[in-house]
Amino acid sequence: MSLQQLKQQVLEANLDLPRYDLVTFTWGNVSGIDRDRGLVVIKPSGVSYDKMRINDLVVLDLNGNRVEGDLRPSSDTPTHLVMYRRYPELGGVVHTHSTHATAWAQARRAIPIQGTTQADYFHGNVPCTRLLSESEVSEDYEGLTGHLIVETLHDTPPLTMPGILVANHGPFSWGKDPHDAVHNAVVLEEVARMSWITHQLNPQAPALPDYMLEKHYQRKHGKNAYYGQNTK
Amino acid sequence: MSLQQLKQQVLEANLDLPRYDLVTFTWGNVSGIDRDRGLVVIKPSGVSYDKMRINDLVVLDLNGNRVEGDLRPSSDTPTHLVMYRRYPELGGVVHTHSTHATAWAQARRAIPIQGTTQADYFHGNVPCTRLLSESEVSEDYEGLTGHLIVETLHDTPPLTMPGILVANHGPFSWGKDPHDAVHNAVVLEEVARMSWITHQLNPQAPALPDYMLEKHYQRKHGKNAYYGQNTK
Amino acid sequence: MSLQQLKQQVLEANLDLPRYDLVTFTWGNVSGIDRDRGLVVIKPSGVSYDKMRINDLVVLDLNGNRVEGDLRPSSDTPTHLVMYRRYPELGGVVHTHSTHATAWAQARRAIPIQGTTQADYFHGNVPCTRLLSESEVSEDYEGLTGHLIVETLHDTPPLTMPGILVANHGPFSWGKDPHDAVHNAVVLEEVARMSWITHQLNPQAPALPDYMLEKHYQRKHGKNAYYGQNTK
Amino acid sequence: MSLQQLKQQVLEANLDLPRYDLVTFTWGNVSGIDRDRGLVVIKPSGVSYDKMRINDLVVLDLNGNRVEGDLRPSSDTPTHLVMYRRYPELGGVVHTHSTHATAWAQARRAIPIQGTTQADYFHGNVPCTRLLSESEVSEDYEGLTGHLIVETLHDTPPLTMPGILVANHGPFSWGKDPHDAVHNAVVLEEVARMSWITHQLNPQAPALPDYMLEKHYQRKHGKNAYYGQNTK
């Protein structure tokens, strides 16, 4: 895949954010990575989706040096870069302030695994990070937000838990490419909405048992998966 | 009706799922049956609605043997087949993860009969199943989900209760044909939404008395029905 | 105004119900009255809005005798007729199952007057009726629903309280003409939604004081009204 | 900028209210000011957005004398004028009855600062005013509503808190021009919605710590801001 093709993918993935109703104004950003070249393509900061053109996208190396583009990259760029450096399996990263996922982040609560909808994508509760300390914020806010995500995932393979809530901020999600990362952002917002309603109907609603979680997660992602057309 | 006409009906009924805002991505499926030929037409697994063509639909006999179509049928196919085999009056079956109905399923609560909106379609509370056991899930998850629905309906005629909540999963609905089954899926989602709001306004809201339930159900479905233009 | 013009008004007012998102399928109806001729125009029963043509509308006298139209009128027609006979100032009547207003009706709670939005249209709490008894339902369900509304309004001039919740059923609204009645149905749904959210944020939220209610109601409807362009 | 250009801006800003789903019918108004000429342009009272033309806008001096336009200005005009006279930095003012912000106003609760979404625009909790007294309402309701906002802001620079909830009424917002004021009205409605959901998920959700509030507010508005493309 050429860098131009990746830029086209990242552009389309960014335009999907308003299409799926995940953003107000410019409150979201998608990036993608070309692993061979070690280059990351990301949305410019504060540019509205309806005015964004392919050449407005910013190309950076993994250390954040600008390689292409005249605009300033998203202020969340250091968070994306930490994720790409830490997890070689990631091809796309997304940050939004989607309504329901952000509300869970503000409530500082993990989204509990209560149904098969979540189990089809997330291998358990969607975690909520701790809050960065004052010294962390002043030292390197956006970079340490990335490390906070890594700390919270601990030893979870990131593609089995393709999203997280950053406390008092909002959701990040990721995937094998920019399109897949946005797909997971849509799912995260929808399960956040379902779990909010579930919580109101029954604050003591039980968790999905492990055997149901495994059944749904594996029938879609396991080695004997039988959901969809491209399974093994 | 020719098989081709049924396929057209099933295609349109599937496309109605996103039109009525019942699905995210591919999270839903509709089937229909040709009782004379004993053939079921169903959505292929994991194919998005905007790319689905009539020849992508899969035709199966009632034992699940593929008769037409190159794609893999919906992973929920065994559930549909159990319903068709058990209830000869069914002409269409739908499964979705519609937001509010799924939330009730996650809360493991029946939708109580609290208003005439529900009484116009559902002859009482919309039940929520028990959870399948670990051995049931490993034995035949999708087939036993169908038997679970049958077990929960017990001796209720299915067209008088044209929908159900499968615990921690989501709603199934059905009807005399695929279009009718989708119609009932829309109603189920709307009564799930209304009952959620009702529950928040008054957790002790009383049930609709039986005489009101009967009045509304019978004026629409009884032998002296006087709602609509095609009544007796 | 000719009867044809009234039919056109009633058609447009019915088509406004889906436009303002007040109805699912055919769950609503609007009527209008020609006071000079003593004729009421109303939606036919169970006909979908996108297929309804002007000649599908049914014309009745105030006793319910059909004067024009081949279709069966809305099953709620007797309720509309009671309202027109009792209140000569009414020119249009609407019934819907709009989501939030219906939820309040199912909760059997009046919508409390908590803000100027409601005070601009409704001179106080929007009342919720009692439930009809079993003998009332079997005697004349739809007609006695009209009398129930009249009983609940008691001595309130209906144009100062242009809507009500029928317990466990849904909202009725009215106005000086069909368009105005739909306008009030939209307002009723929106104040029902606002009051639901208010209730969740503060179950003890105080009522709007009388002097604020009077100020807002009178600046729009009083003899010295100064809201809008057509005031005295 | 010519007066005609300001009128065009005010027209577009008013039309943005329905576009961003902030208003039902005519329940909102935007004004803008030409500081050099001392002239305010504002929406006419009770005129629907789809029929409003540029020459329907009303031009007033800062004392409320009509300079241009045949229509009566918005009934909330005196509130706007107080804001412009008191705060020379304001270029636009907006009033709406947007659903969630109005619900907080009806609950008589400030919107707590619980996330970075709010911190990006509002330097702390969005305050809710006290209720005007009966004598204040009868003396000069709309003018004293403006003074009530000023009283509530106290010594807060208004562009650091570009919105407020007027108790039992609804939100007002403002900005450096009419477009910016509407932008802030959209943000206010969205943070009101997020905070409502947060409150339901965790009524004891903690406030955003000051150092996070400062970080987000300053990275966007401070002298070393690095969000967006036009920062210093």
Automatic annotation (TrEMBL), chains A, B, C, D:
Chain ranges of the Class II aldolase/adducin N-terminal domain: 8-196
Task: Name the SUPFAM superfamilies on file.
Answer: AraD/HMP-PK domain-like
Q: Which Pfam families match?
A: Aldolase_II (PF00596)
Concerning SMART domains, the annotation shows:
Aldolase_II
Q: Name one GO cellular component term.
A: cytosol
Q: Write the record's keywords in alphabetical order, separated by commas.
A: Carbohydrate metabolism, Isomerase, Metal-binding, Zinc
**Its Gene Ontology biological processes?**
pentose catabolic process
Group of enzyme by EC: isomerase
Q: Which reaction does it catalyse?
A: L-ribulose 5-phosphate = D-xylulose 5-phosphate
The protein's required cofactors: Zn(2+)
Does the record carry Magnesium as a key word? no
The record's CDD domains line, in alphabetical order, gives: Aldolase_II
Task: Provide the E.C. number(s) assigned to this enzyme.
Answer: 5.1.3.4
Q: Which family does it belong to?
A: Belongs to the aldolase class II family. AraD/FucA subfamily.
Protein name, entry field: L-ribulose-5-phosphate 4-epimerase
Species this chain originates from: Tolumonas auensis (strain DSM 9187 / NBRC 110442 / TA 4)
